[in-house]
Amino acid sequence: MPRPTLIRPTLLAVALIAVAIGLAACTSPQTTFDPRSDAADRIFDLYIMVIWAAGIVGFLVLGGMAYILIKFRARPGRKAQQIHGNNALEIAWTIIPILILVVIAIPTMIWIGTSSTRPVADDAIRVTATAHQWWFEFEYESLGPDGGTLVTANELHVPVGRQVAIELRSEDVIHSFWVPALIGKTDMVPNRENRLEPFIPNEIGVYWGQCAEFCGVAHANMRFRVHVDSLADFESWVAAMNEPQAAPPPETGEARGKRIFELTAGCAGCHTIAGTAAAGRIGPDLSLFGERITVGAGILDATDENVRAWVSDPGSLKPGVVIMPSFADTLSEAQIADVVAYLKSLRVP
Ligand SMILES: [Cu+2]
């Protein structure tokens, strides 16, 4: 019998480790390893603590196993010895894991307790996020006209350094709100209000959000963005959302697009554009759509081309969308281009 060698298993282990490192190097915009808010920092710290504990345990257990496998491997002239039980060992490997779990549980419990009772600051930005199949609606308390609500969809704006308090709701099935760099994940449940821990974003940027609870065929395409703006940018966005939209210059594509949006195609029956006659509530609010960087609830960049493709046939870009009809047959290409020009013209002045 040939002597068993360790070369093959060692090569395999090296290959597996290389694959793991290679995959870990893939960049991902939705990572909890890059926290950008106080709440995400706390989750990160806890996570790192658990990773260390698991890493040390894993190292000791796997290392011990490797040692035993090598030391006691089959060799000519040696016979395996049967051993029945070892009380000291068994007690040790029951008690040590219990102690480790207790040590991990204490900060976890404290964190869960404080995060669910953290008070909302007086100057917090208060938002209600409502999930729909398959998009997100955001209502800001008291930032709208006459101290009423201000509505937007799929792209939430918040100022850096200010506390944000978000209540979660759903219009239909269970969804979940998750912005890995900032906050979450917490379920959005019909007929129930869940509260996210109030959090303070600490760096200007655009962060990816994602529905994190399977909610139907387009679940994977139910995304959103959080824009953490400077206070000045946030304030000018809020002010522009509250201004009446200036009518586009007559006889331009934008003016034709506005007519198509409000009359010919009936988009206004489903979509609101603040400061205009469009006040539908079935689809996402499209106020200041020209400021949006995505279309289709965060799935595509809001280029003219993508917005045109969306209006011609939303269901082909996001399978499952049936409420918004395809307009490829009812509007000409020129008409769709005009509608898109109109939507794109809705900007912060
Ligand atoms: Cu969902």
How are the elements arranged and paired?
Elements: H1 7-24, H2 38-71, H3 87-117, E1 125-132, E2 135-140, E3 150-153, E4 155-159, E5 164-170, E6 175-179, E7 183-188, E8 194-195, E9 205-211, E10 223-229, H4 231-242, H5 253-264, E11 294-295, E12 300-301, H6 304-312, H7 314-317, H8 333-344
Parallel strand pairs: 1-5, 4-10
Antiparallel strand pairs: 1-2, 2-3, 5-8, 6-7, 6-9, 9-10, 11-12
Helix pairs in contact: 2-3, 5-8, 6-8
The protein binds copper (II) ion.
Provide structural commentary:
The protein is an alpha+beta fold. Among the domains are: 125-242, Sandwich (Immunoglobulin-like), CATH 2.60.40.420; 253-344, Immunoglobulin-like, CATH 2.60.40. It is 38% helix and 17% strand. The strands form three sheets. The chain has a five-stranded mixed β-sheet. Helix 2 packs antiparallel against helix 3 and helix 6 packs across helix 8 (333-344). The chain starts with 6 loop residues before the first helix and ends in a 5-residue tail after the last helix. The model has no long low-confidence stretch (mean pLDDT 93). The structure holds copper (II) ion (CU). Copper (II) ion binds next to loops.
Uncertain stretches: none
Shape summary: elongated
Helicity level? 25-40%
Largest sheet: 5 strands, mixed
Q: N-to-C SSE series?
A: HHHEEEEEEEEEEHHEEHHH
Question: What is the name of the CATH topology of the domain at 125-242?
Answer: Immunoglobulin-like
Q: How far is the N terminus from the C terminus? A: 83 Å
Number of strands: 12
Number of helices: 8
Q: What would CATH call the architecture of the domain at 125-242?
A: Sandwich
Q: Please identify the top-level CATH class of the domain at 125-242.
A: Mainly Beta
Sheet-strand content, in percent, reads: 15-25%
Bound molecules: copper (II) ion
Strand order of the largest sheet: 3-2-1-5-8
Tell me the CATH superfamily of the domain at 125-242: Cupredoxins -  blue copper proteins
Structural class assignment:
alpha+beta
